[in-house]
Write a structure and sequence with these properties.
Elements (H helix, E strand, L loop, with lengths): L3 E10 L19 E9 L4 E8 L3 H11 L1 H4 L4 H6 L1 H8 L3 H4 L6 H22 L3 H6 L3 H6 L12 H10 L4 H11 L1 E5 L9 H13 L4 E5 L4 H15 L4 E5 L6 H11 L4 E5 L7 H11 L5 E4 L6 H9 L5 E2 L9 H14 L12 H16 L8 E3 L13 E2 L2 E2 L13 H7 L5 H4 L1
Parallel strand pairs: 4-10, 5-6, 6-7, 7-8, 8-9
Antiparallel strand pairs: 1-2, 2-3, 4-12, 11-12
Helix pairs in contact: 1-6, 10-17, 11-12, 13-14, 15-16
Length: 432
């Protein structure tokens, strides 16, 4: 029996703003960061987890992780593995913590870091990568991973069971397929808003040469600039490839509709985060206006909880559901959203790119295919090619697909030397 006897919290930041990596219309100077947690046990096993921020927010999220410490210390991995959903509910039920942020905000991000570490620890004990661990669950145990509170007007545990049992046929084949071929990905590497045209052109050519068929570009700061940049990218990638655009919440609802009518000439597959991530009805209005143009709406990167996703799906406000492995409350809540998306027939195309997000969310996409949706139609998982060298089990891309992880755990562990160099403010990356 492995009992959690210590929690270690570290503020890890990478100075990505120096090269404008990750820059977009709303976030011009991000320093990709990890509020990093290690759960240590009396057996020597460890679980690693994190929540993603873009710099100074790490101060607050690290404090939120420490605020949950009393809910985790002394508890066992076996207790978590037996009923992950009940364990998750217990972590969200401290009334004094809920008062300042039930299912959202810094408290929820701190929860996500801890829950991700719990799943990493669980998978390490089982000796399996997380996607294989969960893919091996029975439908009954999968349902026990999810807290259905506030969801039953959209999906009940019995409906979830029926959905999962319906996907049992062929599951073993899908698991073998993922292990052999990986999961489809898309790239944002060429599309950061701060890049000059010559860099965009070079990176677009490289994306085509590397076999990418889905490419995403940041938009929303200046319409003429967007028209010029999209023309450059279409010139390089042609018209047979899917092009997606991402406004990162910068527009008002009428502005989003008007702007996208101008960009429609470049045939974008989706517009991502066209307005406030909390504005369900605004997204629905945009979706209906853009549907005749053949442009879908995608959002979820800042979707703070399963209830918001429920409403987006109920309102038919999104054509693509974008989960985030660190924005939601860890693996459990991501599994809940997979079930909701499958119930409403909306493909899940996760957000990634920030430090660790590609490493983590590939597991969730693979679980979606093997257990929940059983489909790859219109499904791709984001890939951005930076910061992977800092991870013990970094992503690998082959033929524009994520290679399936084989190492036990959730791929969340950062190398010790990278932790030391990038710990804020004393690490060598910050001292210089």
């Amino acid at each position: 029996m492995a009992r959690i006897n210590r929690i270690e919290v570290r503020d890890i930041r990478f100075p990505t703003s120096r090269a404008l990596d990750g820059s977009d219309a709303m976030n011009p100077d991000p320093d990709y960061s990890s509020a990093y947690v290690v759960l240590r046990t009396d057996t020597g096993l460890e679980g690693h987890g994190s929540a993603f921020t873009i710099g100074r927010g790490n101060d607050v999220v690290c404090a939120a992780i420490r605020a949950h410490e009393h809910l985790v210390l002394g508890r066992t991995v076996e207790e978590f593995a037996e009923n992950p959903g009940a364990f998750w509910r217990s972590l969200t039920s401290d009334s004094q913590l809920r008062w300042i942020g039930p299912d959202k905000g810094a408290i929820h991000l701190g929860l996500a870091a801890i829950v991700n570490a719990l799943w990493d620890l669980h998978a390490r004990v089982a000796g399996l990568p997380l996607w294989r661990l969960v893919s091996g669950f029975t439908p009954e145990h999968f349902v026990r991973c999810v807290d259905f509170r506030y969801l039953t007007d959209a999906i009940t545990p019995d409906e979830a069971l029926e959905l999962l049992r319906g996907k049992l046929a062929g599951k073993a084949v899908r698991i073998s397929e993922i292990a052999r071929e990986g999961y489809p990905a898309y790239t944002t590497s060429a599309g950061w808003l701060g890049y000059p045209d010559e860099k965009i052109r070079r990176l677009s050519r490289e994306a085509v040469a590397e076999g990418w068929n889905h490419i995403k570009v940041k938009v929303g700061r200046d319409l003429d600039d967007d028209l010029r940049r999209l023309a450059v990218i279409r010139e390089e990638i042609g018209w047979e490839r899917k092009l997606m655009v991402d406004a990162n919440q910068v527009w008002e609802v009428p502005q989003a509709i008007a702007w996208m009518r101008e960009l429609a000439r470049f045939k974008p597959w989706w517009i991502e985060e066209p307005t406030s991530p909390d504005d369900v009805l605004g997204h629905a209005t945009i979706a209906r206006a853009l549907e005749p143009l053949g442009i879908g709406v995608a959002t979820g990167e800042h979707g703070m909880n399963r209830i918001l996703f429920k409403q987006l799906l109920q309102a038919r406000a999104i054509s693509f559901c974008q989960i985030d492995s660190c924005r939601l409350g860890g693996v459990n809540e991501n599994l809940a959203v997979l079930l909701l998306a499958a119930k409403f027939g909306v493909p899940v195309c996760p957000h990634a790119g920030g430090v660790g997000l590609c490493e983590f969310v590939r597991h969730i996409s693979m679980i979606d295919y093997t257990c929940v949706s059983g489909s790859l139609e219109n499904r791709v998982c984001e890939f951005v090619d930076h910061l992977h060298e800092h991870f013990v089990d970094p992503v690998r891309i082959r033929n524009a697909r994520y290679v399936a992880p084989e190492m036990p755990g959730y791929s969340t562990e950062i190398l010790p030397e990278s932790l030391a160099a990038h710990e804020y403010p004393g690490g060598s990356a910050w001292r210089r």
